[in-house]
Each structure stands twice: as structure tokens, then as C-alpha cells.
Amino acid sequence: HKHPYDENNIFARIVRGELPSKKVLETEHSLAFHDINPLAAIHVLVIPKGPYVSWEDFSARASEAEIADFVRAIGETARQVGAEPQGYRLLANVGKRSGQEVAHLHVHIFGGQPLGAMLA
Ligand code: 5GP
């Protein structure tokens, strides 16, 4: 397997409730929580609860319900944290070259300030 999923990665432990997080939204298949090291006034992470490392992995193995839930959770989280209506940025690091630190698929939501050309 190309991307063996580590059941003990930090986000898996947050999903299982073994590590605390500042939750914004929880749905059947997704979870959103504040980043522990915020790089913008609003910096939230949205993850599918299932064991997916990358978009390739997620799109190949997740159900239609999980995929729909995740997409909706991103938009709903942006609204709940007030990133809407002023505007925000979504970012997902995938793989070593991007600097992906946690091997569980996640989308960053940055907002609450002018974002310029920042990358994370
Ligand atoms: P990556 O570089 O993989 O795209 O982003 C991982 C993000 O997870 C980083 O922004 C980092 O601050 C955040 N992070 C790492 N460990 C924890 C944690 O235990 N709790 C929370 N809430 N965020 C974390």
C-alpha cells in the first residue's frame, strides 16, 4: 500500500477523543477544530473522520456520503467561525514535498484578516 494509514496519528486520536481539541463542528463523517498553532486570526482544520491520508486515498475509498459530508463541513465551518462573508482561503498539504505534517487528510481554513500571499 502506497499510503499506509497510521491509526495513532494525532488527528485520529482527536477523532477518538484521546486528545483534546477546540471543536467548531462535528458531523457524522467530519470534524472541524481550531489549529493548535494558528497562522491567521482564523485558522481551523477540517478533517474526514475516516482513515484517509490523501485526496487520492479519500476519493478512492470514501463513500459518497463521506465525501458530501466533508465538502459541506468545510463550507459550514467557514460560516460558523465567521470567515464568511469577508472571505477566506482553503489549503491542503499533501505529501512530503508539501510539508504535510499529519498523515490524515485535512483542509486548513484561513481567514479573519487580509491573507496576502501567505502559504502554510
Ligand atoms: P500540515 O502541515 O500537515 O498541513 O498541518 C498540520 C497542522 O496541524 C499544523 O497547522 C499544526 O499546527 C496542526 N496541529 C498539529 N498538531 C495538532 C494538535 O495536536 N492539535 C491541533 N488542534 N492542531 C494540531
From TrEMBL:
<dbReference type="InterPro" id="IPR019808">
    <property type="entry name" value="Histidine_triad_CS"/>
</dbReference>
<dbReference type="InterPro" id="IPR001310">
    <property type="entry name" value="Histidine_triad_HIT"/>
</dbReference>
<dbReference type="InterPro" id="IPR036265">
    <property type="entry name" value="HIT-like_sf"/>
</dbReference>
<dbReference type="InterPro" id="IPR011146">
    <property type="entry name" value="HIT-like"/>
</dbReference>
<protein>
    <submittedName>
        <fullName>Histidine triad nucleotide-binding protein</fullName>
    </submittedName>
</protein>
<feature type="domain" description="HIT">
    <location>
        <begin position="10"/>
        <end position="120"/>
    </location>
</feature>
<feature type="short sequence motif" description="Histidine triad motif">
    <location>
        <begin position="104"/>
        <end position="108"/>
    </location>
</feature>
<dbReference type="Pfam" id="PF01230">
    <property type="entry name" value="HIT"/>
</dbReference>
